[in-house]
Design goal:
The structure holds two protein chains of two kinds. In chain A, the strands form three sheets. Chain A has a ten-stranded mixed beta sheet with strand order 5-4-6-7-1-8-14-13-9-10, with helices on both faces. In chain A, strands 2-3 form a two-stranded antiparallel sheet. By secondary structure, chain A is α/β, with parallel strands linked by helices. Helices cover about 30% and strands about 20% of the residues of chain A. The two termini of chain A are about 15 Å apart. The chains are: A alpha/beta, B mainly alpha.
């Protein structure tokens, strides 16, 4: 099997647009949460979220004009805009915009989303009701379909290899990166642009997640303290938005062109809960098996894991995952550090697994675990170091990132320093 | 230029992000102004909205240029 490495990174997050801007704020323990600005959410049970900071593009703000021309942007939902921006950052970072046909034929795209163009669907449904079918835009469908980030990215750069998309709720980003790595391992492509994007902070998105009792509702007066994984006072997740995209590459291909290599994708494991549509089983069996499978694929024993980027959404399920990780690591649990970066950026749903894989890669690069903020009063006494409220500088050779989604779909990625 | 032509031009400039002086009598939406087939569908919808008229699909297919659009709308209004 060919080895797969990461050579480019791109992020649009509630902390900032851009890798370094996001990462430095994450390490500093900042929160991307606030009262929802995009629309009037005062009538909803939750009126706060982690929105991408819009601006002129300076100081980490996200300026849509920097990433898509206004004419094109009008035709796509924001999840595609975020995905295009993260993909542009990643391919630039990787220095991979080949002009020759052979390279383009060997480069594919696999960027997914949990929900896709939710606000476009909602707005168009209202338009249909109010003005009739003749007012429905020809760009409604191609601007809302989940695989259209992959389509748009391929068109922009001429990438003619495998063109695919993943839809597995909150595991989407991790599945996309794992599946894309396998396409390279199997020789279907030499380079894959992979990740996830989401833009579901809209009236119907908040109302929908409120209805299934998934969102935090109690901290309208202090939104930055609302996402608090593992804390006894957590009351649900805080919705985030944005995108994470990586450039994955066959190791020999990356070496041959002298690419900067961040890390290697060592393992990828998948599992299903077969239990409940929104809740994990009490024993965390699904997550446990995904982690176990990823480590097996990596040829590593659990004690090799230095850092775990948890799924940790700030819901009741946090302690179930914690229990599964502690069971996996056994008597070595005390040696590992685990944090939930959702405490800072919220839950980016289909983009979560992708940006969290990127945070894991940066943790390896900089030898530091980002903090779990707002962890003031742990719900249970953890055996692991949860990097509570402060980053944890330590040796990190191997990192594992967990993503679990509605429907009982689980993915774990194992990433490590590249060794010859 | 008539009021109708001004309004049509404004829509074309907005939707296709083209310079106003490119939108001439014989300018083809697809060949000269960078539109694709979906753009032209959207343009026709915008004309319908702006002028409160209905442009049937078979008529829409005959609207290829700025001049075609102005003529159709003038006749229909």
């Amino acid at each position: 099997m060919r080895r797969v490495v990461v050579t480019g990174l791109g992020i649009v997050s509630p902390l900032a647009s851009g890798i370094e801007e996001t990462w430095s704020r994450l390490l500093a323990g900042e929160s991307g949460a606030g009262t929802i600005q995009r629309f009037d959410a005062s009538h909803l049970a939750t009126n706060y979220a982690c929105e991408v900071p819009l601006g002129d593009g300076s100081d980490g703000t996200f300026n849509p004009d920097d990433w898509m021309a206004p004419k094109e942007r009008r035709k796509v939902d924001d999840f595609i805009l975020f995905g295009m921006a993260a993909a542009e950052q990643a391919v630039r970072d990787a220095g991979w915009m080949p002009e020759d046909e052979e390279s383009r034929l060997r480069t594919g795209v696999l960027i997914g989303s949990g929900i896709g163009g939710l606000s476009s669907i909602a707005d168009t449904a209202i338009l249909l009701k109010e003005k009739g079918p003749r007012r429905v835009s020809p760009f409604f469908i191609p601007g809302s379909l989940i695989n259209l980030i992959s389509g748009q990215v391929s068109i922009r750069y001429g990438f003619k290899g495998p063109n695919h998309a993943v839809v597995t709720a909150c595991s989407t980003g991790a599945h996309a990166i794992g599946d894309a790595a396998r396409l390279i391992q199997w020789g279907d492509a030499d380079v894959m642009v992979a990740g996830g994007a989401e833009a579901a902070i809209c009236e119907i998105g908040i109302a929908g997640f409120n209805a299934c009792k998934a969102l935090s509702t109690k901290r309208a007066d202090d939104p930055q303290r609302a996402s608090r994984p593992y804390d006894a006072d957590r009351d649900g997740f805080v919705m985030g938005e944005g995108a994470g995209v990586v450039v994955l590459e066959d190791y020999e291909h990356a070496k041959a062109r002298g690419a900067k290599i961040y890390a290697e994708i060592l393992g990828y494991g998948l599992s299903g809960d077969a239990y409940h549509i929104t809740a994990p089983s009490e024993d965390g069996d699904g997550g446990y098996r995904a982690m176990e499978a990823a480590l097996k694929r990596a040829g590593l024993t659990p004690d090799a894991v230095d850092y775990i980027n948890a799924h940790g959404t700030s819901t009741m399920a946090d302690t179930i995952e914690l229990g599964a990780v502690e069971r996996l690591l056994g008597d070595k649990a005390g040696l590992a550090t685990m944090s939930s970066t959702k405490s800072s950026v919220g839950h980016l749903l289909g983009a979560a697994g992708a940006i969290e894989a990127i945070f894991s890669i940066l943790a390896i690069r900089d030898q530091v675990a980002p903090p779990t903020i707002n962890l003031d009063n742990p719900a249970v006494e953890p055996k692991l170091n949860l990097a509570a409220n402060a980053k944890h500088e330590r040796e990190i050779n191997v990192a594992l990132s967990n993503s679990f989604g509605f429907g009982g779909t689980n993915a774990s990625l194992v990433m490590g320093k590249v060794t010859d | 230029m008539s009021d109708i032509a001004d309004r049509v031009k404004k829509i074309v400039v907005e939707h296709l992000s083209v310079e106003e002086d490119k939108v001439t009598e014989n300018a083809s939406f697809i060949d000269d102004l960078g539109a694709d087939s979906l753009d032209t569908v959207e343009l026709v919808m915008a004309f319908e909205e702006e002028f409160g008229i209905e442009i049937p699909d078979d008529a829409a297919e005959t609207i290829q240029t700025f001049g075609d659009a102005c003529k159709f709308i003038t006749d229909a209004s």
